[in-house]
């Protein structure tokens, strides 16, 4: 047993040292998939960090109560909560009016909360610019102010009354823009809106004839038991973030992390697409490596190694590369997450890298090993099943000829015939090219769909910026860049292996009368032919993927964008193939035939 283990280790080290370029390509391909998966999983782990920092800095409440009733009925409904079991402190009730705010020609829903100038024991909004409330002025939640383009010193109108902007602030007691929870006086439904604070003495005049609502902040002896407190405090809780009767701090944290949720979905879906692309790329590299090791298979079997031992010798190398890629992808995803995720303007603090959770390590390792095994199992099994004599001879498999193929080949142009014959000799490689272009085109078209959408939020009267769009665009950009790099590497590997494998067939074709130009074009055609169906299928696949993943109405990009994308992918493949194809076509036929073993 020790001897076999030593043999596996020595062969493993030898292969890694002799083929460093291929090893790096394998590492990059698997790392791209595991890194993207880790990045998507990390979003869920660290998205709540800014909220927790804001909650600590502003003495955020554990439960926020906001009854549907108004006026004295609302105050009566809130009064028992201040003395409920488990409540250790409270602030408020604070009057709330659901009005409209106009700034710089834009009108939006505004949740107007009346506050005192003195600090409260709970929910002390942190002023990020300017000063806190005083009579005749207004303080805007920072994300809302950024969406409106409002700064300290500007003048805004709240239901027709001009107020000077005293500053901006952030809070953990209500969800950030645009989910502040605006409610029409004659409806229980909530709509998107922003939060502003005014002096308590000004809110009655601003509300006019509209009855005032109220909100109450509660601190519990056990903050983690806020959900149980809500369940106990009411028999029919409506614990929704947008204006429910009782809202826990966990609900608010989840809603504040909502802008990251769409980006997370993009990265998780993208990681599976990259997995397929990585399998295609790794399969291409492994097929070349295993075919080059056919004679070693024969030697191992000649000295007594069985099929299982042969398979272990070959698989060990790729499993080690997979484990290394899992660690690299895990580290890359965790380090990239804070750069990608910028906290909402309505929160304080920043996103920091955290040690990976156990499930993230397991997910990244499982994905990396799955890619390694899925891409290598078939060629390794074929190598293990090869007879000893055939492996030692290392002879090429004779092509299968059909009468109808011969009849058709006589009527094709020379360049097209050469390209078809190259693909006929290696159909698996042609399918890898199709898969590579299919995934690449799918993601590029999905990105075009994302850019074609109108992304502002309707806040009742005007459309303001969607805070989710920036994170989604960042995620799409990261995914597209990683995918394009991996697709280019796959295309380069496919071209490289095709050039090496086609040296002898091209030399034979030239001896039969083909010109160097026809031989070079034929090799390029061999890469373009399987790419065309991949591009053709990738366009509807990208449109369908975005349509399924999106919510609500969508807009389709112009046909010119889709056509340019398809042509761009095909031109990239042509450019990658043209240079090596023409170089090999110019090589003397005699040198090629002498250097190729028979």
3D architecture notes:
With 598 residues, this protein is α+β, with helices and mostly antiparallel strands. It folds into 3 domains: 1-47 and 257-395, no CATH class; 54-256, no CATH class; 397-598, no CATH class. It is built from 21 helices and 14 strands. The protein has a 6-stranded mixed barrel. A hairpin with a 2-residue loop joins strand 2 (87-103) and strand 3. The longest helix has 35 residues, at 258-292. The radius of gyration is 32 Å and the shape is elongated.
* Total number of distinct structural domains: 3
Helix content: 55-70%
Strand content: 5-15%
* Topology, number of strands: 14
| Low-pLDDT ranges | 236-244
Mean pLDDT, to the nearest integer, reads 78
The number of distinct helices, counting runs of at least 4 residues, comes to 21
Give the biggest sheet: 6 strands, mixed, barrel
So what's the overall shape?
elongated
Distance between the termini: 38 Å
* Spatial strand sequence of the major β-sheet: 2-3-10-5-7-6
Oligomer: single chain
Radius of gyration: 32 Å
Structural class: alpha+beta
């Amino acid at each position: 047993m020790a001897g076999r283990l030593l043999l596996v280790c020595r062969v493993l080290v030898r292969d890694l040292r002799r083929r460093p370029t291929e090893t790096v390509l394998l590492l990059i391909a698997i790392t791209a998939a595991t890194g993207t998966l880790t990045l998507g999983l990390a979003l869920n782990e660290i998205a709540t960090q800014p909220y927790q920092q804001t909650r600590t800095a502003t003495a955020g409440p554990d439960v926020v109560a906001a009854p549907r009733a108004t006026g004295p009925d609302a105050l009566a409904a809130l009064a028992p909560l201040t003395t409920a079991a488990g409540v250790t402190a409270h602030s408020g009730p604070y009057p709330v009016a659901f009005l409209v705010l106009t700034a710089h020609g834009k009108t939006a829903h505004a949740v107007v909360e009346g506050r005192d100038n003195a600090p409260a024991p709970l929910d002390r909004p942190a002023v990020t610019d300017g000063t806190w409330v005083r009579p005749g002025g207004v303080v805007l939640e920072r994300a809302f102010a950024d969406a409106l383009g409002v700064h300290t010193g500007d003048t805004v109108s709240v239901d027709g009354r001009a107020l000077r902007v005293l500053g901006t602030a952030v809070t953990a007691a209500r969800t950030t823009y645009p989910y502040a929870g605006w409610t029409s006086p004659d409806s229980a439904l909530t709509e998107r809106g922003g939060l502003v604070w005014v002096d308590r003495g000004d809110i009655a005049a601003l509300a006019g004839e509209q009855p005032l609502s109220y909100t109450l902040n509660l601190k519990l002896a056990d903050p983690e038991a806020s959900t149980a407190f809500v369940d106990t405090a009411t028999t029919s809780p409506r614990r929704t973030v947008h204006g429910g009767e009782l809202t826990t701090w966990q609900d608010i944290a989840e809603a504040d992390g909502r802008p990251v949720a769409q980006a997370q979905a993009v990265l998780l879906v993208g990681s599976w697409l990259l997995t397929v692309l990585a399998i295609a790329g790794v399969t291409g590299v492994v097929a070349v490596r295993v075919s080059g090791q056919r004679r070693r298979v024969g030697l191992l079997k000649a000295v007594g190694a069985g099929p299982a031992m042969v398979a272990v010798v070959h698989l060990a190398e790729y499993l080690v590369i997979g484990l290394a890629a899992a660690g690299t992808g895990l580290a890359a995803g965790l380090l990239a997450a804070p750069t990608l995720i910028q906290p909402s303007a309505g929160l304080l603090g920043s996103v920091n890298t955290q040690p990976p959770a156990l499930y993230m390590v397991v997910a990244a390792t499982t994905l990396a090993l799955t890619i390694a095994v899925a891409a290598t199992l078939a060629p390794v099994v074929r190598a293990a099943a090869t007879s000893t004599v055939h492996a030692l001879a290392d002879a090429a498999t004779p092509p299968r000829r059909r009468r109808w193929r011969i009849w058709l080949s006589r009527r094709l142009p020379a360049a097209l015939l050469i390209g078809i014959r190259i693909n006929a000799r290696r159909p698996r490689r042609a399918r890898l090219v199709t898969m590579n272009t299919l995934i690449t085109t799918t993601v590029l078209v999905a990105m075009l769909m994302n850019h074609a959408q109108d992304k502002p939020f309707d806040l009742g009267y005007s459309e303001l910026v969607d805070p989710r769009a920036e994170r989604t665009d960042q995620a799409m950009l990261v995914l597209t860049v990683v995918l394009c790099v991996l697709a280019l590497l796959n295309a380069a590997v496919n071209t490289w292996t095709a050039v090496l494998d086609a040296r002898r067939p091209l030399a034979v074709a030239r001896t039969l009368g083909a010109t160097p130009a026809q031989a070079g074009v034929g090799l390029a055609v061999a890469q373009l032919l399987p790419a065309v169906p991949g591009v053709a299928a990738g366009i509807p696949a990208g449109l369908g993927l975005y349509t399924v993943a999106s919510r609500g109405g969508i807009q389709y990009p112009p046909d010119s964008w889709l056509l340019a994308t398809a042509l761009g992918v095909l031109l990239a493949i042509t450019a990658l193939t043209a240079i090596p194809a023409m170089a090999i076509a110019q090589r003397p036929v005699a040198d090629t035939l002498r250097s190729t073993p028979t």
